[in-house]
Description:
Elements: E1 4-8, E2 11-16, E3 19-23, H1 25-62, E4 66-68, H2 77-86, E5 90-98, E6 107-111, E7 117-119, E8 123-130, H3 145-154, E9 158-164, E10 173-177, E11 188-194, E12 200-202, H4 211-220, E13 223-228, E14 234-235, E15 244-248, E16 254-256, E17 263-269
Parallel strand pairs: 5-8, 9-11, 13-17
Antiparallel strand pairs: 1-2, 2-3, 4-7, 6-8, 10-11, 12-16, 13-14, 15-17
Amino acid sequence: MVASTIFVSSSCIVCTKSGLLSLSEDDLSAYNQCIPMVYRFIFACVPFLAFFGGYVLSKISTAPSLCVAPTLVGKKVYDAFRETESSGLALSLLATSVDQTCDPGTVLYQSPEPGKKIKQNQIISLVITTRPQALSAADYRLSPCAVVKSHMQLHDITVREYHVPLLYSADTCIAQVPAPGQSLEKKTIDLYVVAQDDSFVLVPSLRNYTVGDVQEFLALHNCYATFYDIYGNIVGHPSPIAQIATQKPCAGTIIRKSSLHKNRFEIQMGE
């Protein structure tokens, strides 16, 4: 104790290191009230100080260890995964980007950047390369060849033309390789185009056409036909509505149109 108190009637004497100190009743009342206030303040601060001290100690003891972000740019995704897995890090795919200068699945960008201090178990976000979307062939059949060439030029695709005589408007695409919907990965397309020279004709299939339609076609191309019935007998005046069963020349044959002589067809009618 710093001081001891001796009560004498209406006053008291306080013993201190420097001697005896006489206090009045008012001074004694103030002195007695001061001591409980100090204790109350100390008792109020103790829980807060204990909580604050425990919080600081918990942060110090549980603080995560730091490591350096590895260099993943330029590596394949599976190589980056193996490297980060052994270091206790995680990967996340942030985005993909088309880059024809790198193989698909190559890391183009990472965050956090290589060499930066990061926490254990922190996620590293990656941007990796991907293949460009494959271009497929549209259906160019019966389209003007000039339109097809213009479209192919936009995609840097080589066009190879094969001219075929046919009963369509000149310079019209009638067939293509690759077929519609197939990939143009080889950057080349073959077009079969109606020849501008009408001196040749590609014989169509006349099966199931009527005799009247066939006669109109033959007259247009300076040809004539001999008609046969199902028994092989020649029919001089066939019915215009009779249907065709077989023909010679066969469908797909290329014949030359000539003003000097007519091409002969052999047509067999059905029942």
